[in-house]
Write a structure and sequence with these properties.
Length: 266
Amino acid sequence: MANYALDNASAHGAAHLGGLTGLFDDFTGARIAESSRLRGARALEIGAGNGSVALWLAGQVGPDGSVTAVDLDVSHIPPHDRLTVSRLDLLEQPPPAGPFDLIHGRCVLTHLPNRATLLPALCERLAPGGTILIEDFDPFGLDRAAHLLAAPAEPAGVAELWQRYVLLRQQLFAESGSDRGFINQAPQALLRAGLGDVQSVTWCRSWRGGEPGSWHARATLQQFRPRLVEHGFPDEAVDVLVRALDDPDFYSAGRPLCSVSGRAPS
């Protein structure tokens, strides 16, 4: 996480994490519920962010279960009786030993340069019959993410500006070491680790300005502002998009999230 392109401790961190929660928690919860037995489970949440998924899990596992949440910045995670929160740098430290009946991570592995060895290490920490669920943005959805279904009438050119920004954002993540193609390699990695029942599900929903998708987009835009300017994207253009992202006439096609699961042998 040391080379993550964004900083959850920044002034925009809470909005960034809240946007992810609003966009994807319902989908993530459904994927976990359909692939795992949660009552009494021991669960691990990596890159827990604001703890929304970890807290939901703590409510699902019941009094006989437990949840461990790890992240480099744990300041956004509220307490819960069945939740153990640990500050952990997955670049420098191994994941908790387990065993775990469920391991989940969303929008984290793609940013870690040790992703190719970390994913098998996580699989090794599954209990017999345990499930791992890894989620990240589908790189094949970049064209969709850059597309607006509608744009504010004023100022002119918001749709073109947004498309230019989205493509540059992808470049900035790549320059920071993110591998947006990793999620599409995850099914083969889970199979190589000996897991079965490997499934990949992709989900997407459109959103308008002022909704959770716009919180996430605006927070990312603001955090990238200095680097955008360095790459020739004008500061005034950032301001135009920041304002547009509060306008309900800004209507994004959305960005697909790919969810990959696998089960350890019983």
